[in-house]
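Q: Structure for this?
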Amino acid sequence: MKDLVKKKHLFNSEWFIEKTLLFAGVSSVLIIALIFVFLFKEAILFFQTRPPFDLIGITVFDSWEEKNIFKMMWQAVNETPKYSLIPLVCGSFLVAFPATVMASVFGIGAAIYLSEIAPNKVRETLKPSLELLASIPSVVVGFFMLAVIATIVQNITGSKFRLNAFVGALGVALVTFPIIVSISEDALRAVPKELRDASYALGASKWQTIWNTVLPAGVSGISAAVILGFGRALGETMIVVMATGNAALVTGDIFSSVRTMTATIAAELGAVAQGSEHYYALFLVGAVLFTITFILNLCSEIVINRMRQNLRM
Amino acid sequence: MKLKIIAVLALVVMIASPSAFAERNITVKGSDTLVVLGQRWAEEYMKQNPEVSIQVTGGGSGTGIAALINGTTDVANASRGIKGKEITKAKKNGYYPEEFKVAMDSLAVVLHKDNPIDSLSMKELMGIYTGRINNWKEVGGEDKPILRYCREANSGTYVFFNETVLKKQDYAADCQTVPGTSAVANAVSKDTAGIGYGGVAYFLTQSNTKVVAVSKTQETEAVSPVKSNGKVDYEAATSGKYPIARYLFMYTALKPKGEINEYLQWILSPDGQKIVEMVGYVPLTS
Amino acid sequence: MKTPLVKPNKDLYHNQMDKNKITEAFWIFLTRVFTLFPLVCLFALLAKIVLEGYGIISWEFLFQPPKDGMEAGGILPCIFGTIAITLFMILMALPLGVGAAIYLVEYGGDNKLVRIIRAAVNNLAGVPSIVFGLFGLGFFILFVGRNLDAVLNTGLLFGQPCLLWASATLAVLVLPVIIVSTEEALNSVPQSHRDAALALGATKWQTIWTVVLPQARGGILTGAILSISRGAGDTAPILFTGCAYFLPHLPVTELFGFIPMVNPFDQFMALTYHIFIMATQSINVERTLPIQYGTTLVLIALTFLLNFFAIMLRIHFRKKLRVN
């Protein structure tokens, strides 16, 4: 009898532990769901006072020109607040795109070197250095861009704006680089050795093997790395706040000053009264940003999973 | 294991005795223009009254007033007056903001020291900041595109400049917003074609920028907010000769009581106003 | 090899070979450049920061609060704040993250739920840090905090930006780091050890607690250290959840009137935020440049030491596992 009770108790505690662990496991899903709910809950309230079209532009009377003008502007603190997302999205992409291109070119090159070319010893020292690079706080990179690099870039390019999208992109590329390297390298290392051996057996040189065999085999993993890197570049905050100049322009000029979605939230959210139109607008920007990065993350996740399955075959 | 025990203990303690942590000091939040002054005040006041603890944070006038409305600060610093809309919002939350004028400030317009221009009219400033004037030669300078710097939208300086100089028109889209007045000074000091504005105190010690004189109309004489000896011209600000001068405010959520009241009274006293002078703003007593 | 019908022009053949060799060498050289260039940038950045910041580092700088309108003095409150939030953060994130990883590895198997959790963890790792800031404000402060205040009748204690919520936000941010590294650590424990324990009659949890976790200790510790370094270096999530421009006192309080402890309901200063505001909002950016470099140096030293320590630890434990 006593034994039975003890057993039951034990069973109960095991059950309890498993459920607790299950809760811990599910917490990540819960958090993602909560982020969704709490961003969109506030974001949707924006449409209480504003039609959706205001997110593109708004027609206002211009007292200087004395006529109505259609404006695509983000100027939230004003007589007639303007909440066009166009300049912000434009700014985000103008920083993230060049940054991802730079980080990808260097990152894929480095991944090839680390996985195919470098001797073991060299790799063992380079990989921790890359991890150190990944661990640099972005505010430090931002500070460095602002204090040192911006002036150098302006002296070289003679650009009108000292702080511009390109300076921001350089900084963002530096922090995106380690992410792209590490995922691409994993992808390349996952390419079966047999493929390489077959290529060598056919008389291909080292580079021919890399270029014609290893890279095509690892391309899905590499593209996942690039997609993920792009998501990170879009979400980078402190570097762009400090180094892009923050002018909400609709432009395609990479040497122009831009204002990204992240910088807008960082600069303005602390200042708004909770429950105001501006507050909801900033949550809306956050929701847009979150949705974009969520889709990018999902894409790269799917690509990686497919790659794993293909390689297992 | 040990970590977990500590974690659990900490959690229990947190929940069990919230009152132990509730001891509050005076929190002051808001305008970046006022944060330096606010900090000097706090430092000095705490030196004289060591039992009081005052916590000063910046973030912009909008931030401070928002915090006041949300009930997260005792005192809000603002470099603009509170708006009707904000008062309504505060009342909805059960607060009745009290206003205290604590100092005056001249808003200086600054250029790089190599820019030959020494004075601008209000009309020219409006043209520059609304994006109608895009080259320095249009206002008598060199043939160079104008680079506009302005403050973040949460600052009182942004709003005040928008109201008095731009007459509530939009800022040009290519205005580069920078997060603080010192960032304006820093940016302009590195850009020969730059123009910026901000509380005059921030520019007194800068060697690479110069404060320009501003005239109300093309015909009247331009007045500089700074005297030739490098000190702030109090008379120009208080008499209204310099067109972009403003009051700086402190707001409390309700009628101030106890230590908050004593602190505000001390700020308005000659002792407190002496610090205004020291930091480079215009004291109310002058 | 086929014998060519026509005798090849030897020179041409050699030229071609040389050219191939040269292009080959060029490409390989290029990948080397691509690897080294960013690292050179890193070391240039570090060198600049060390050279500029070295001069100001002193006991006074490390152990004094800022003074004279933050133009002089030290950064003690920032160091204290950064340490305090990361400690609170790890206290919250570690149990949750390790628990999640244990579930995934030991209980999960390969069902749909596990796949969803994995996807969520990976996705969480890619959420922009500023979005965590929004989430911290919207969820922790305004939802949880305000409701706690209403329920506990504590006025405005929970429902405001403070150390507790900043740490909670950071905890969410580093959760994936902890989960992934713990998973790796658990996976590296040989299955035979589990089988042995189970065969001896241990329950599943007993096996995990007495056999698996002790062996995975090193990996978990590495993950914890890495996440501390990540948390200490992130700025965006704490912008609206509790960090302050300037505080005259450290965020400490006396529990029950006599036990000194960190006050989780106070605001705090942090190294990262200090760099940000000093570089953009201090009254004279040029004059405070040494302080900015000094603060940056301290932050970098802190994160690098933590990372270095974590990497060494990982190498050590991997070797030990291999020996086993």
